[in-house]
Amino acid sequence: MNTVQNTPVIYEAEDIIVGGGLKQLTAAIKLSKQDRKVLIITGGTYLLEELCNTNMVISPDTGPEEEGILQEVLPEQVRDPEPDGKRWLLHPDRLKINAERVCEQYGIQLLYNSKVVDTVKQKEKRYVRIAGKFGICLIGYKNMASFPVSEDVKKKNRYCVHIMNAPEKIEENKIIIPGETESYEVTLHAGSYNKHHKILQISCEESGYPCKEAYLLQCRQRCLEAVHYLKKHRKEFGRLQLGRFAPDGYYGPYDYRQEYRMGLEAAECILHPGRQQEDINVKLYPEEEGRAKASDPEGIELFSCNDMLDCRNYPQITVEIPGMKVRGEFDVIVAGGGTAGAMAALHAARNGLKTLLLEMNKDLGGTGTVGGVSTYWFGKRYRDVQEIDEEIQKIYDRLSLIRNPGIWNAHDDWNPGIKGMVLAKLCRAAGVVMEYDSQVFGVMKDRASGRIKGVAAVIKEEAVCCYAKYIVDATGDGDIASFAGAAFRYGSERDHITYWASLAQYTSPDGYRNNFSSMLIVSDPFDYTRFICTARLRGDQTFDHGTYVSPRESRHIRGRYEISLKDILEFRTYKDGIYTCFSNYDPKGKLSADMVYAGVLPPQVSIQIPLGALLPVDRNNRLIPGIIVAGKAISCTHNAFPSIRMQPDLVHQGTVIGYILAKAIEANTDIHLLGSTEIKEMIRNYTGDPLSLPCRTMKQEEAVRTISAEDRTHWVDLDFTEEVLQEGRSLRIMTAPSEEIRPLLEQRYADLVNRVKDKDRTGIGLLERLAGYLLWHGSGLGLKLHVKSIMEELKQAEGLPERTGPTKCVQLLPDHGVMPELVYRINLLAWSDSECVLEPFPLILERLKGLERDYININKGIYHYIEAFSYVAERTGRPEFIPLLLQLCEFKEFCEIMKPQLKAELLTERLSILLLSLYRALARCGERKGYEGLVQLLLAESLPIAASAGRELEALTGVSFGLDDRSWREYVNALEDPVKIQAISKKIW
Which CATH superfamily is 7-149+255-317 part of? Predict the structure, then answer.
C-alpha cells in the first residue's frame, strides 16, 4: 500500500506521550495508574534518554528518596553507590530494562524509532501522523503531550566518554586540558562497571558550532585530546584505554527531581483539562494545530509504500499529505550513513557532487560503529578500505591505545567511536552536508516518468523534502526503494525467515559480545519495538545494549539481475561487474539452499557483483530510475547473501557507487547507460579492484569420470586467510543442469556397480557418492543402495549418529547448515518419489523420543534430524509422513514455545521455525492439522514467524486474510476432504 494515499491507523490510544525521557515516563505511568490506555512514542530505541543517551549515568546527589513513581523508575537495583558514598551511579542496562519492565507492568505501549510528523483531524477523530522505516502511519488519540526543549537547554554544554584502566582513586577530578585552539575543563566521575572505570566529562558549548554534526565531532575530538593529555602528562593514567563515546551531549547540571515533577504535572494537565501549567514546559494537542500547508509540487507525488503492513489488516483512511519544507536541491542524496552509505557520500563529494547525507543515528558507520560490530570478518581490502583503516591507526598511534590483534591484518579491530569520527571528519572535509537524527519516510516521484526526484524525511523533528538527481538507498534495508514501489523479498524465498539481527551487547564500557540471534520485520513499528525489548533481556552480565538495531538481513530489493548461490559457485562474472567481494559461506541463521541440505557447503571465494543487482525494478520488472541500492539490500537470493555482506566489501561498494554516480552525472546520463568497459577500467584505477575471478575449467565429463568417495563437499575447516580459486568436483556436479549430467552419472554408476565387491569399501563408498549425486539430479538408479547405507549406519549406532566433521565458526543450530553427515544423506531422499524413502524415519522418530533432545550440542544435530522429516515430507508429498510429523509436533518443547516467559530464550525462535516447517510439511502432505497449526502460529509474538505462517497459508490456498486468525480458522474448517497434496518440486538456490 502507498501509506500516503491510504494511511493505516495502527493503534488507538487515550493518551499519547511524545518522548522517552524521565518526565515522559513519569507522566505515562501516572496516567496508566488511572486505567487509561497510554502510548509512548519516541525516536530512540530506549527509555530515560537523557540519562542513557549521554553516558551521564550519575545522579547528582544522594539518589531518589521519594516514594512512588520515581522509586519505581530508579529502584535500588539500577543504582550502585559511588566509592565516597555521596552519590549513586546508575547502571545503564539495568536502567533501561527496568523502565521497559515498568511499562509492561502498567500496560503502557511503547513505540520505538518513530517520529511525530504532525496531527490531523478527520470526522471528529484526532490522529497523530508518525514516520519511520515503516513509512507513514496514523495513531488515534484523545490527548497528546510533548515536552518542547526550552531555549536555555536546547544547546548542549557537556559531553561524556567511557574510559577504562583509570586509577582507582583520583586526587583531583577536575583537570584543565590545553586544546588545539583553547583550553577546556574535563571532569572525571566514577563509573558503575568497576573501580577502574571512569566517565570523562568535557565542557563544550554547542552554541559555538554551525550544526549538531560539527559539535559532536568537536566533542569527540576533545575527548581524544583529553585522553592523549592524561596518558602523556599524568603517569597514573598511562594504561588508559578508550571506551565508547556518548551518542549525544547534554545540558547540565541535570536535575532529575525537576524532570520528575514536570512529568507528574503534565499528567495532571491531561487528567484535569484547563489546569494551569505555568511551571512546566509541556505542549498539549487538544485540537489539530500548527500544520504547515500541504506541499504537493506540480508533477511530483509523495510515495511511501509498505506492503508488509497489509498483513496486519489495519483500517485505512485518506488524509492530506504532510506539510513539508523544501530542504534543498543536490546532485545526490545518500539515505543512510552506514558502512556503504558514508563511503558513497564521501566519494561522491570528492568527485565533485553536491551531496546530502541523511543518517538516523548521531554517528556514521552503521553496523561497524553504532551497531557494535567493530571487527572485520573476511572481505577484500582495496584502497578505499585501507584509507579508513590507516586514518584510524593514526589515532591509535597518537593515543598509544592497545589494538586487538586481527586474523587478516592489524586493522581488523577498532574502537567504534574512533571509526565514526574518522568517517565524519573525512565527509566534512569533502563537503558532504550531513544531517544526523534524520528519518526518511518517503520518496518524491515524478508522475510522468516515474523517476525518483527526492526524498521526504523528518530531520531533527521537522518534516522536509529534499531533491536530487540520484538517490542512494543506503538504509541497509532497502527502505527508499521499497517506498518507491520496488519489488523485494523479505528474507527467504518461501517465508520471512531471515538471518539473525542484533541489538549490540556490551559486556563492559569498552567490550562487545557477538549476539546475532533473533529476527524482526524492520518495516513494522510494533515488531521493531518488540525486538528491541526482547533483545535487551538477553545477555548475561551485560553492562549495556546498543542504540541501533542491526539486521543481518531484511529486504532484498529486486534488481535488473538477481544473484543466486549458483552464480557464486560458478565464479560468474558480468559485463557490468563493478566490485568484488570475498567471504566464507557464513549463514548466521536458517538457510534454504537445497544444495546445502544435500551436504555441499560452499567454499570461501571471491564474488563479482554486477551493477544490475543495485538498480531496483518494480513488480513488472520495469527499472525505477533515480535510485541505486547500496549496502546489503541489493538484489540476491537468501542463500547467496551470506557471502556478499562483509563490512570491507560494503565499504568498497559504497566507494564505487559514489564514484560512478559522479561519472554518470558528469556525463548527464543515467548510471546504467555508462559504458561497461570504460567504467570497469576507471574502477580498477580508482580502487585497485581487478574485477576478475577464476575461470571454470572442469568439464562435466571430466568431473563425472574422476568422482571419488573422498570428494570435498565441506570447506568449513579452511584457514580464514585461504581463498578457494578452483571449482571443486562436487560443486561442478551439483550445479550442472540435470538433463545434461544425469545420463553421465547413470552411465558411470552402471559401469561400476557390477565391478564392486561386497568388501570393497572404497568401491562401495564411490557408489554411495554416485547414488547421492543421482538422487540430487532426479535419478533413482542408486536409491536402494542409498537407503541401505542409511539404515546400516542407523542400526549400528546406539542413538543417532553425530557429526564427525569440523564445526568451525558454527553457532547454535540451524546456523551454517552444519548437520550430522547422515542427515545430509537422509535429506537427499527428498528427490525421489519412491515409497522406500520412508524406511529410515520410523526408527529415527523412536530414537528421538528416547533421547534427551539436546538442541545446543552442534554435533548431535537434533534440530536437523527433526527438520529432515519436514524437508523430505513436503518434497515427496507422501501422506505416510503425516503420523510421524504429528508425533513430532507433540514434543513438549513445541507445545511450550508460545509461552510469554520464554520469549527471550535463544531457542524459542529457532524452535518456532522448526515447528513452522513441521506444520508446512503436514499441510503439503494434505493434512488439515498442518493448516490448523499454521493458523496457530499467526499468533506468534515474533512477526517473522507469524507472517511466514500467513504466507504459507496464502501459497496453499490462493486467498489472503493476513494475520486474521479468526478468518483463517473459518476458512480451514470449511476445507473439503481430502485436503489437496501440494508437494514442493523446485530447487532453491
Answer: FAD/NAD(P)-binding domain (3.50.50.60)
